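Weekly structure sync, notes
Attendees: PL (lead), two postdocs, one rotation student
Agenda item 3: pending single-chain targets
PL asked that the sequence for the first pending target be pasted directly into the notes so everyone works from the same version. It is reproduced below exactly as submitted, 784 residues in total.
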Amino acid sequence: MRAVATLVAIALLMLAGPLAGQALAAPAEPDAGPAVSVDLALDQLTPRVATLDGPTFVTVTGTIRNSGALPVSQLGVRLQRGDALRTASDVESALAGRAGTDTVTPAFVDVPGTLAPGDTVHFSVEAPLRGTGGSGLAIDRPGTYPLLVNVNGEPDGQPRARLAATRMLLPVLSLPADAVDGALEPAVPATTTGPARPFTMLYPIVDVPHRLPGVPGETTTLTDDDLARSFAPGGRLDGLVSALAQRAPSGSALRSGICVAVDPDLLQTAEAMAEGYQVRGAGGALTPGSGADAARQWLAALTSTVRGGCVVALPFADADLVALARGGQGTTAAEAVTGGRDVAADILDTPLQTGILWPADGVVDDETVDALAGSARLTGLVLSADGIAGSGRSGVVPLREGPSALLTDPLLTAAATPGTDVPTGSGAPVASSAVPVSTPLSTQDTIGTLAFRATSGGSASAAGTSGTSGQAPLVLAPPHLWGADGAGADALLSAASLLVDNGLLVPRPLSATGATGRDATLLYPLQAGGDEIPATTVDRVGALIADVDSMSAAAIEEPGADVTPAAVFDPLRRSMLRPVSASWRGRPALAATAADLAAIRLDELRGTVRVLEPPGPYSLGTSDAPLLLTVSNGLPVALDVRVVIASTAGLQVSPIPDQRVPPLGRIQVRVSAQVVRAGQFAVDAIVQTPKGDILGPPTRLQVRSTAYGTVTVWLTVIAGGLLVLLVARRILRRVKGGSGPPSGPRTGAPPGPGDLPGPPGPVGRTPVRPEHAATAPTVPIRSD
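Predicted structure, written out during the meeting:
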C-alpha cells in the first residue's frame, strides 16, 4: 500500500507541475476570454513631449467601446510606464510591444457605469509626471519612456481582467517644477550629449490609385469617392497639407529640412476631379462625385504650400519600379519616373529635385538602377539602411557604378510604419481599408523615437557621415502611404520644431552629395521581394501598354486639331501603371483587381472604334451589289484604320483601302462585293490598325441575297448546254434514220444502193412490206 501511495503522489506532482508553472507565469491582470471584446481609441495625449514649461500632468482622453456580447462593469483606466529606454535595441523592443511597462503602476481611475454590448463611453485619465505614492508616473529625469494605457473591467460572470491596452512612447526633454510628496521639486533641464544632429524629413503626400483610364473630353471616372472625404476639411490629405502649412511654412527653419514627396497621379486626379467627375459602383452604375470643390481647394492649398520649398516627385502612381524592371518592363519603369516628374512640375508649377529618387520601401536592385540610369538622370537615391549590404552605415554613402545613397534611419522608419505599435487586448480592430487607419496619436511613437535619436548622441555608427560637425544626417522617411492624419502630422512637426528650438536638431536640405567611405553594394531584401507586385500583374500591364501603343500608332495629328495624339495616349499609357502601384505591395489581390479594372476600361475605349451594326440585314438584289459600312471613332483624335471582312462564306470582297476616320466621328465605306450564293448569311467586319492590330470588337453583319451568284449562273449555263446537246443528238438520229420502210432482200437491214423503193400504196393505207406480202403464182406470157 505504501508503494501504491508513493506512485499516486508522484503522478499528482507530475500533473500539478505544468499547472503550477502556468499559474506562476500568468500576469496579475489576465486578458479576458474571447466572448469579451473591448475597443480602445485614444483621442489626445497631453503633452506629446514633456518640457520645462509644459504641463505637470500627463492627460489621456479617448473612448471605450464594448464590441463583445457581454456587459462589462467596474471599468477602470490607468497610465503606467516602464524604464527609460537606453539603447536602440530598447527602442526596437518598445516599438514591437516587448518593453516592460510595469515599473510604475498607479491606481486605476474608475469609469462609472456598466458598459452594455455596443455602447461607448468617453474617459479622461491623468497622472502627475513626477508624482509618487501610487498616483503619478514618478519620472525624475529626462528620457524616452514606454507608456501604457490600460483598461480593466469585470465582464459579466468573469473575474476582473485587462480588456484592452495601447502602448506608446513618451519623450521627456525636461521636467517642470512640481510638488511631490508635499515638497517642491525643482525643474530638471534638458541634457545634451553633443552637437545638434542634422535632420532631414521626407513628407509623403500619397494615396492609393482611384482613377480609371480615360481620354480627354470624357467625364473623369473614379472607382470610389474616398478622395472626396480625404480632401475635405478634417480629411487625411487635407490635414497633411494644413499641418505642413502651419508648422513648417515656406521660409521657416524647419521647412528647409523637409522635402515633400508627391505622387503625380494623385495631383492629376485632384485636378481632374475639380472639373467634375463620376463614380463607378460595384455593379457598374455611375453616380456624380461629391468632391469637386474639395479637390480644387486642396490642390490650390498644396500648390501654395510647397512653392519655394523642396519637392520630389515619386514615380507616376508610385509604380513598383523593381517589379517592372524584373518583369522586363525597364523602359516602362523609366517612363514612370520621367513622366511623373513632368506631371508634377506642370501641376505644381515649382522646381523639383529631379535627380533624387525615393523608391518604395527604400529598396532597389542593380537591374532597376541600370534601367533608370539612361533617361531618369539619377544623382541620388533615398534608401533604407536595409537596402545596402552590411550594417551600421548611415549618412550619405557611395554606390558601386551608380549614384550616391542617402540612408534613412531604421528606427524612425520602424516607428512611422503602421503595424509596429499593435494594441494588445482581445478587441484590437483590424484595418481593412486600402489606406492605413489614421489616429490622432499615430505619430506618437515617431515623436518618441525622434527625441531619443536627438538626445542619445548619434546613430549606430559614424561611418559614412556627412553634415554638421561630422554628425550623420538623421533622415526620417515614413512609408509612402503614410497613415498619419492632420493631428498626427501637426504633432510630429511641432515636436521636430521643438527639438530644433532646443538645439538638438538642425535642419539639413535633402541631398545625396558629400558621400564618404567605401563603396556600398545594393541589397534587395527577401521580404521586399515577397511583397513585390506579382509577375502576372506586371505581364498584364505590359500587354495593356502594348495595346495602347498599337492604338497610338494609328493616330494622326491633323493641323488645327484641338487634341493631339500625345495628349490622348501619353496619359492613357501612364494610367496603365496603377495596377503596379507600390500601394498594392503585399496585397496581390488588390493589384489584380486594379489590372482587371484597367483592362475593362481599355476595352471600352477600343470598342468605340468599330463598324456600326445596321438596324437590319443588308439586302442585295444583284450579284455585284456594294456594301455600305459605317465606321465609328469614339476617340478625340483621327485614326487611320483598315476594315476587314473576316467571314466571307457566301461573299467575295475586293481589297478595302485604308480609311481615315475623323475624331469623334464616323465615315461610310463602300465595299465591293460579289454574292456567291443566294439566301441569308452572316459575315464579320473588323476594324484594324494599318499594322493589323485589332481595335474594336467584330461586328456581325447579316446579308440577304436574292441575286444569282456566279456558281448559280455557271450551273445554269452548263445545264442549258447539256440540254441543247441532247436535243441535237435526237434530231440528228431521226434525220439519219428516215421516215419510210426500207426495201431490199435483207430483212431488218437498211436499203442498199441498188434497192429501189416500191410503188406508193393507196392513200390512207399502210404499205405492205415485201417480206410480209403473199407470193403470187407465175403466169407465162404467151406470144399470141
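Discussion points:
- DSSP finds 17 helices and 32 strands in the chain.
- The first strand starts at residue 38 and ends at 46.
Action: rotation student to compare against the earlier draft before next sync.
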